[in-house]
Amino acid sequence: MPETPLVDPAWLADHRDDPSVHIVDVRDSWEYDSIGHLPGAVNIPFDSYRDADSSDPGTLPGADAFARLLGEAGIGPDDTIVAYDDTHGVFAARLLVTALAYGHENVALLDGDFSSWQRAFETTTESPTVESVTYVIDGLAATAPIVDRAAVAAAIDDETVTLLDTRDEAEYEEQHIPGAIRIDWREFVDDESRGVRSAAEIESLLTDRGISTDRNQRIILYCNTSRRLSHTFVVLRSLGFTDVVIYEGSMTDWTAVGGATESLV
Protein backbone atom coordinates (compact mmCIF):
# COMPACT_ATOMS: atom_id res chain seq x y z
CA MET A 1 0.00 0.00 0.00
CA PRO A 2 1.32 3.51 -0.77
CA GLU A 3 2.34 5.72 2.14
CA THR A 4 -0.24 8.43 1.32
CA PRO A 5 -3.57 8.49 -0.54
CA LEU A 6 -1.88 10.39 -3.39
CA VAL A 7 0.60 8.59 -5.67
CA ASP A 8 2.61 9.96 -8.54
CA PRO A 9 2.75 8.33 -11.99
CA ALA A 10 6.25 6.94 -11.39
CA TRP A 11 5.06 5.06 -8.30
CA LEU A 12 2.14 3.59 -10.20
CA ALA A 13 4.35 2.61 -13.13
CA ASP A 14 6.58 0.70 -10.69
CA HIS A 15 3.66 -1.05 -8.98
CA ARG A 16 1.14 -1.66 -11.74
CA ASP A 17 2.18 -5.32 -12.08
CA ASP A 18 1.61 -5.96 -8.37
CA PRO A 19 -1.46 -8.23 -8.23
CA SER A 20 -2.69 -6.45 -5.11
CA VAL A 21 -2.74 -3.06 -6.88
CA HIS A 22 -5.85 -2.46 -8.97
CA ILE A 23 -5.97 0.55 -11.28
CA VAL A 24 -9.46 1.95 -11.79
CA ASP A 25 -10.47 4.30 -14.59
CA VAL A 26 -13.68 6.13 -13.64
CA ARG A 27 -14.31 7.85 -16.99
CA ASP A 28 -17.25 6.95 -19.22
CA SER A 29 -16.90 3.59 -20.93
CA TRP A 30 -16.58 5.18 -24.38
CA GLU A 31 -13.55 7.17 -23.21
CA TYR A 32 -11.99 4.09 -21.66
CA ASP A 33 -12.54 2.04 -24.84
CA SER A 34 -11.94 4.63 -27.57
CA ILE A 35 -9.40 7.08 -26.19
CA GLY A 36 -7.43 4.48 -24.28
CA HIS A 37 -6.51 3.90 -20.65
CA LEU A 38 -3.64 2.94 -18.39
CA PRO A 39 -2.39 -0.62 -18.97
CA GLY A 40 -4.19 -3.01 -16.65
CA ALA A 41 -6.87 -0.52 -15.65
CA VAL A 42 -10.46 -1.64 -15.22
CA ASN A 43 -13.38 0.67 -15.90
CA ILE A 44 -15.83 1.64 -13.14
CA PRO A 45 -17.65 4.71 -14.52
CA PHE A 46 -18.46 7.55 -12.15
CA ASP A 47 -22.23 7.20 -12.46
CA SER A 48 -22.08 3.55 -11.38
CA TYR A 49 -21.09 4.37 -7.79
CA ARG A 50 -23.52 7.26 -7.23
CA ASP A 51 -27.14 6.81 -6.22
CA ALA A 52 -29.09 9.60 -4.57
CA ASP A 53 -31.99 7.18 -4.04
CA SER A 54 -30.12 4.56 -2.01
CA SER A 55 -30.83 4.21 1.71
CA ASP A 56 -27.34 5.49 2.56
CA PRO A 57 -26.58 9.21 3.04
CA GLY A 58 -26.13 11.62 0.15
CA THR A 59 -25.19 9.97 -3.11
CA LEU A 60 -23.59 6.84 -1.67
CA PRO A 61 -24.67 3.84 -3.78
CA GLY A 62 -25.50 1.40 -0.99
CA ALA A 63 -23.31 -1.34 0.47
CA ASP A 64 -24.53 -4.20 -1.72
CA ALA A 65 -24.26 -2.19 -4.94
CA PHE A 66 -20.74 -1.03 -4.15
CA ALA A 67 -19.61 -4.51 -3.08
CA ARG A 68 -20.91 -5.88 -6.36
CA LEU A 69 -19.04 -3.23 -8.36
CA LEU A 70 -15.73 -3.99 -6.67
CA GLY A 71 -16.20 -7.73 -6.81
CA GLU A 72 -17.02 -7.69 -10.53
CA ALA A 73 -13.85 -5.65 -11.09
CA GLY A 74 -11.80 -8.34 -9.35
CA ILE A 75 -11.01 -6.15 -6.35
CA GLY A 76 -10.82 -7.83 -2.95
CA PRO A 77 -11.10 -6.24 0.51
CA ASP A 78 -7.33 -6.14 1.09
CA ASP A 79 -6.36 -4.90 -2.38
CA THR A 80 -5.13 -1.38 -3.12
CA ILE A 81 -7.32 0.75 -5.39
CA VAL A 82 -5.54 3.46 -7.40
CA ALA A 83 -8.11 5.56 -9.25
CA TYR A 84 -7.85 8.20 -11.98
CA ASP A 85 -9.95 10.21 -14.42
CA ASP A 86 -9.13 12.95 -16.90
CA THR A 87 -10.44 15.84 -14.81
CA HIS A 88 -7.59 16.42 -12.34
CA GLY A 89 -8.80 13.53 -10.18
CA VAL A 90 -12.07 14.96 -8.86
CA PHE A 91 -14.26 12.09 -10.13
CA ALA A 92 -11.70 9.46 -9.14
CA ALA A 93 -11.41 10.90 -5.64
CA ARG A 94 -15.12 10.32 -5.20
CA LEU A 95 -14.59 6.58 -5.75
CA LEU A 96 -11.94 6.56 -3.05
CA VAL A 97 -14.08 8.39 -0.50
CA THR A 98 -16.91 5.96 -1.26
CA ALA A 99 -14.57 3.03 -0.71
CA LEU A 100 -13.44 4.45 2.63
CA ALA A 101 -17.04 4.97 3.65
CA TYR A 102 -17.66 1.25 3.18
CA GLY A 103 -14.49 0.19 4.96
CA HIS A 104 -12.06 -0.39 2.07
CA GLU A 105 -8.92 1.14 3.56
CA ASN A 106 -6.24 0.76 0.87
CA VAL A 107 -6.97 3.56 -1.59
CA ALA A 108 -4.96 6.13 -3.51
CA LEU A 109 -5.51 8.79 -6.14
CA LEU A 110 -3.20 9.12 -9.13
CA ASP A 111 -1.60 12.56 -8.84
CA GLY A 112 -2.58 14.08 -12.15
CA ASP A 113 -4.94 12.37 -14.53
CA PHE A 114 -5.04 10.43 -17.79
CA SER A 115 -3.68 13.36 -19.81
CA SER A 116 -0.86 13.80 -17.31
CA TRP A 117 0.01 10.09 -17.45
CA GLN A 118 0.12 10.17 -21.24
CA ARG A 119 2.98 12.65 -21.21
CA ALA A 120 5.46 10.08 -19.93
CA PHE A 121 3.90 6.61 -20.01
CA GLU A 122 2.12 4.30 -22.40
CA THR A 123 -1.61 3.80 -22.74
CA THR A 124 -3.64 1.02 -24.34
CA THR A 125 -7.08 0.21 -25.71
CA GLU A 126 -6.86 -3.43 -24.61
CA SER A 127 -8.99 -4.36 -21.63
CA PRO A 128 -7.49 -6.68 -19.02
CA THR A 129 -8.93 -10.10 -18.26
CA VAL A 130 -10.74 -9.83 -14.95
CA GLU A 131 -11.73 -12.65 -12.61
CA SER A 132 -14.56 -11.57 -10.35
CA VAL A 133 -14.32 -12.11 -6.61
CA THR A 134 -16.81 -12.19 -3.77
CA TYR A 135 -16.87 -8.93 -1.85
CA VAL A 136 -19.20 -8.51 1.11
CA ILE A 137 -19.96 -5.13 2.71
CA ASP A 138 -22.33 -5.06 5.69
CA GLY A 139 -22.92 -1.31 5.62
CA LEU A 140 -21.16 1.94 6.33
CA ALA A 141 -17.91 1.39 8.23
CA ALA A 142 -17.51 2.59 11.79
CA THR A 143 -14.46 4.46 10.48
CA ALA A 144 -16.37 6.13 7.64
CA PRO A 145 -15.12 9.76 7.38
CA ILE A 146 -18.68 11.08 7.31
CA VAL A 147 -20.64 13.43 9.58
CA ASP A 148 -24.33 14.21 9.56
CA ARG A 149 -26.36 17.42 9.53
CA ALA A 150 -26.37 17.65 13.33
CA ALA A 151 -22.57 17.63 13.46
CA VAL A 152 -22.44 20.42 10.90
CA ALA A 153 -24.96 22.49 12.83
CA ALA A 154 -22.89 22.05 16.00
CA ALA A 155 -19.72 23.06 14.14
CA ILE A 156 -21.12 26.46 13.14
CA ASP A 157 -20.48 27.87 16.62
CA ASP A 158 -17.47 25.67 17.41
CA GLU A 159 -14.22 27.58 16.92
CA THR A 160 -12.22 24.35 17.02
CA VAL A 161 -13.86 23.08 13.83
CA THR A 162 -13.32 24.45 10.32
CA LEU A 163 -16.23 24.25 7.88
CA LEU A 164 -14.72 24.25 4.41
CA ASP A 165 -16.83 24.98 1.32
CA THR A 166 -15.15 23.50 -1.78
CA ARG A 167 -17.44 25.10 -4.38
CA ASP A 168 -16.76 28.02 -6.68
CA GLU A 169 -17.06 31.67 -5.68
CA ALA A 170 -20.46 32.33 -7.26
CA GLU A 171 -22.07 29.38 -5.50
CA TYR A 172 -20.57 30.40 -2.17
CA GLU A 173 -21.65 34.00 -2.51
CA GLU A 174 -25.19 32.99 -3.37
CA GLN A 175 -25.59 30.66 -0.41
CA HIS A 176 -23.34 28.87 2.08
CA ILE A 177 -23.42 27.39 5.56
CA PRO A 178 -22.82 30.10 8.19
CA GLY A 179 -19.17 30.46 9.15
CA ALA A 180 -17.86 28.36 6.29
CA ILE A 181 -14.60 29.31 4.60
CA ARG A 182 -14.35 28.78 0.86
CA ILE A 183 -11.51 27.13 -1.02
CA ASP A 184 -12.54 25.97 -4.48
CA TRP A 185 -11.21 22.42 -4.95
CA ARG A 186 -9.54 23.59 -8.18
CA GLU A 187 -7.30 25.91 -6.17
CA PHE A 188 -5.39 22.83 -5.01
CA VAL A 189 -4.67 21.87 -8.65
CA ASP A 190 -1.60 22.91 -10.64
CA ASP A 191 -2.78 23.67 -14.17
CA GLU A 192 0.57 22.87 -15.76
CA SER A 193 1.09 19.42 -14.27
CA ARG A 194 -2.66 18.71 -13.91
CA GLY A 195 -1.82 17.31 -10.48
CA VAL A 196 -1.89 18.61 -6.94
CA ARG A 197 0.03 21.74 -6.00
CA SER A 198 2.99 21.49 -3.65
CA ALA A 199 2.51 21.18 0.11
CA ALA A 200 4.04 24.63 0.60
CA GLU A 201 1.61 26.21 -1.86
CA ILE A 202 -1.37 24.54 -0.23
CA GLU A 203 -0.26 25.53 3.26
CA SER A 204 0.13 29.13 2.07
CA LEU A 205 -3.38 29.02 0.59
CA LEU A 206 -4.83 27.68 3.84
CA THR A 207 -3.06 30.37 5.86
CA ASP A 208 -4.27 33.11 3.51
CA ARG A 209 -7.86 31.95 4.08
CA GLY A 210 -7.43 31.94 7.84
CA ILE A 211 -7.25 28.16 8.20
CA SER A 212 -4.75 26.66 10.61
CA THR A 213 -2.18 24.20 9.28
CA ASP A 214 -2.46 22.16 12.50
CA ARG A 215 -2.70 18.60 11.21
CA ASN A 216 -4.93 17.53 14.11
CA GLN A 217 -7.70 20.08 13.68
CA ARG A 218 -11.15 18.92 12.61
CA ILE A 219 -12.13 20.01 9.11
CA ILE A 220 -15.62 19.33 7.74
CA LEU A 221 -15.89 19.52 3.97
CA TYR A 222 -18.97 20.12 1.87
CA CYS A 223 -19.99 21.08 -1.68
CA ASN A 224 -23.35 20.34 -3.34
CA THR A 225 -23.42 16.56 -3.89
CA SER A 226 -20.11 15.40 -2.36
CA ARG A 227 -18.12 15.15 -5.59
CA ARG A 228 -15.83 18.17 -5.38
CA LEU A 229 -15.17 17.82 -1.67
CA SER A 230 -13.73 14.36 -2.36
CA HIS A 231 -10.68 15.79 -4.11
CA THR A 232 -10.03 18.20 -1.25
CA PHE A 233 -10.42 15.33 1.20
CA VAL A 234 -7.73 13.27 -0.52
CA VAL A 235 -5.36 16.24 -0.80
CA LEU A 236 -5.65 17.19 2.86
CA ARG A 237 -5.31 13.59 4.02
CA SER A 238 -2.21 13.20 1.82
CA LEU A 239 -0.66 16.19 3.61
CA GLY A 240 -1.17 14.56 7.00
CA PHE A 241 -4.39 16.21 8.18
CA THR A 242 -5.78 13.44 10.36
CA ASP A 243 -9.29 14.65 11.19
CA VAL A 244 -10.80 15.57 7.84
CA VAL A 245 -14.40 14.44 7.38
CA ILE A 246 -17.17 15.09 4.90
CA TYR A 247 -20.76 16.21 5.15
CA GLU A 248 -22.10 13.63 2.73
CA GLY A 249 -25.43 15.36 2.24
CA SER A 250 -23.70 18.71 1.59
CA MET A 251 -25.75 21.70 0.47
CA THR A 252 -28.39 19.49 -1.14
CA ASP A 253 -29.27 18.01 2.24
CA TRP A 254 -28.72 21.24 4.19
CA THR A 255 -31.10 23.36 2.12
CA ALA A 256 -33.67 20.58 1.76
CA VAL A 257 -34.48 20.85 5.47
CA GLY A 258 -34.21 24.62 5.63
CA GLY A 259 -30.80 24.83 7.23
CA ALA A 260 -29.59 28.36 7.95
CA THR A 261 -27.47 29.92 5.21
CA GLU A 262 -25.53 33.10 4.57
CA SER A 263 -25.33 35.06 1.35
CA LEU A 264 -22.90 37.64 -0.02
CA VAL A 265 -25.19 38.83 -2.80
TrEMBL record:
GO terms for molecular function: thiosulfate-cyanide sulfurtransferase activity. The keyword Repeat applies. It comes from the Archaea. Keywords: Repeat, Transferase. The keyword Repeat applies. Residues 17-126, 157-263 form the Rhodanese domain. InterPro entries: Rhodanese-like_dom, Rhodanese-like_dom_sf, Thiosulfate_sulfurtransferase, Thiosulphate_STrfase_CS. Coiled coil: none annotated. Pfam families: Rhodanese (PF00581). Gene3D superfamilies: Rhodanese-like domain (3.40.250.10). This is Sulfurtransferase. It comes from Halonotius aquaticus.
